[in-house]
Design a protein that fits this description.
The complex is a heterodimer of chains A (306) and B (165). Helices cover 27% and strands 32% of the residues of chain A. With 306 residues, chain A is of the alpha/beta class. In chain A, the strands form three sheets. Chain A has a nine-stranded mixed β-sheet, with helices on both faces. Chain A has a seven-stranded antiparallel β-sheet with strand order 4-3-2-1-7-6-5. Chain A has a two-stranded antiparallel sheet with strand order 8-9. In chain A, helix 7 runs parallel beside helix 8. Chain B has 165 residues and is mainly α. Chain B has one domain. The two termini of chain B are 12 Å apart. The chains are: A alpha/beta (306), B mainly alpha (165). Chains A and B meet through helix 3 and strand 7 of A and helix 6 of B.
């Protein structure tokens, strides 16, 4: 899909000289060098591949930025206005395009975004087996745990949950898994990403609606969802746990301590059995530590048991 | 034999006149179909918000107008290759339009899919008048010149035949 939205020359350089499998993020800012995030590190490039300095990097033009959004909308900006209002689009392959520009409001509501100035393309990767080191901490003879994955953006939370679901199905553990895919990032737009054979997917629904409808209609054993944020997300989680459904969710936080400081944390304080913290500043999907229900460390990344 | 040659001359001149009148009739059909395309785009954007290319492709299948088919093909090709829509590429193999008309139609195509529904509709409505103007000019031309050239062709053929008699 990226070949359809990127400038042909840029695509050629990225695919031939660098390799999309290494790139986590590409940022295009009007009249500024294009920035790559490769395994957690910021890199610039020219037609020959990586360059060391910011000044030598290939620059993005305004047209380049606009073209990415125009092409991502399949030449129909009018058809993606609801997504634009949220600030991002999702492509078939699960690539997420964050958009910046001028926000037009009407009656204090976002009407649309115009005059695009930067885009940020996040490329999902399959990191096979990244959940294996802690698999036995997340499921045991008593069954699945309620799990919360914690890390700052871009550290592989979604990659981790996708692999965990895959590992469950690989082991033929017949759980009915319901994915509430609010942004189409877990299963991709039109469910193009492989998430295993026992998954039902509710796409582009807010968590409250998705949880309510999903529990009623699909009788899930496990609900998987991404990026808990607003108060209503935590209410939805509470509702599901009280219905006896297990939860695998992710949340943005730097550490377990930062998580505790979140205002909404009180709502979920006693809900989760396991807190998985992903390492920051390294390649995505690396586990830093696992905490139990009472927030005691039970696993440290690198294989050491506490 | 002589009479046969004279009849052939009349037919050839009449055919030439018909060819010229066809040019004006084709232009009229082109602009009429363009207006239909315009209406379809406007409707689809407002109601189904279907993707531009699927709207164009479905119209391509519905219409019999060869020039509009060419225009749609050229436009889709421009978008899909590098998103550079130039006048030369858009009107490749389309010979029934003058430069001013090409510019107007180019502006119309260049604005497609670039805005949210509200602004796209506003944009389309502002262009509707221009497209209507192109259509009525073509209609007037067709009314005036299409029968004229056909008649002139036949008369010219008959005149030559009379002289040769």
């Amino acid at each position: 899909m990226l070949n359809k939205i990127l400038d042909a020359n840029i695509y050629k350089i990225l695919s031939q000289k660098i390799g999309f499998n290494k790139i986590n993020e590409i940022r295009f800012r009007e009249n500024k060098p294009i920035v790559l995030n490769v395994d957690g590190q910021v890199k610039f490039f020219d037609s020959n591949g990586f360059v060391l300095s910011y000044e030598k990097g290939l620059k993005a033009s305004k047209k380049m930025v606009e073209d990415i959004i125009y092409k991502a909308s399949e030449f129909s900006i009018y058809s993606i206005n609801e997504e634009l209002k949220q600030g991002f689009l999702v492509l078939d392959g699960g690539e997420r395009i964050g958009v910046c520009g001028t926000i037009i409001t009407e009656n204090q509501k976002i009407k649309t975004i115009t005059n695009f100035t930067s885009v940020n393309i996040r490329i999902p990767h399959e990191i096979k087996n990244c959940s294996i080191p802690i698999f036995k901490h997340l499921i045991d003879e008593n069954g699945l745990k309620n799990i919360l994955i914690i890390s700052p953006p871009g550290q592989g939370k979604t990659t981790f949950i996708r692999d965990f679901i895959y590992q469950l199905t690989e082991r033929n553990l017949f759980y009915n898994i319901l994915i509430i895919d609010e942004r189409g990032e877990i299963a991709g737009k039109n469910n193009k990403l492989e998430v295993g054979k026992f998954c039902d997917i509710i796409s582009f629904s807010d968590k409250h609606t998705g949880f309510l409808q999903g529990i009623r209609a699909m009788n899930p054993h496990l609900i998987v969802t991404d990026e808990l944020g607003g108060s209503e997300d935590f209410d939805a989680i509470n509702y599901a746990v009280n219905c006896g459904v297990k939860i695998l969710a992710t949340i943005h936080a730097d550490s377990i301590n930062q998580l505790k400081q979140k205002k909404e944390f009180v709502k979920i304080e006693n809900l989760f059995d396991r807190y998985v913290v992903l390492k920051k500043g390294v390649k995505p999907g690396v586990i830093e530590a696992v905490y139990n229900h009472s927030m005691q460390k039970i696993f440290i990344g690198g294989g050491q048991m506490v | 034999m002589k009479y046969i040659i004279l009849i052939i001359i009349v037919i050839i001149c009449g055919y030439l006149g018909y060819g010229l009148s066809l040019y004006y009739n084709n232009r009229l059909k082109f602009f009429r179909t363009l207006l239909f395309l315009f209406e379809k785009i406007n409707l689809e954007i407002n109601f189904s918000q279907a993707k531009l290319i699927s709207i164009l492709k479905s119209f391509h299948e519905e219409t019999n107008n060869k020039e509009i088919k060419k225009l749609i093909n050229n436009f889709i090709k421009c978008l899909e290759i590098n998103n550079e829509v130039t006048k030369e590429d858009l009107f490749k193999d389309i010979k029934i339009l003058n430069d001013e008309e090409k510019n107007m139609i180019l502006i119309f195509f260049l604005s497609l899919g670039k805005f949210d529904v509200f602004n796209q509709t506003k944009q389309l409505n502002s262009q509707k008048e221009e497209l209507n103007k192109l259509y009525s000019n073509a209609e007037q031309e067709a009314k005036k010149y299409a029968p004229l050239y056909l008649k002139l062709g036949i008369i010219f053929g008959l005149a030559i035949a009379l002289i040769l008699l």
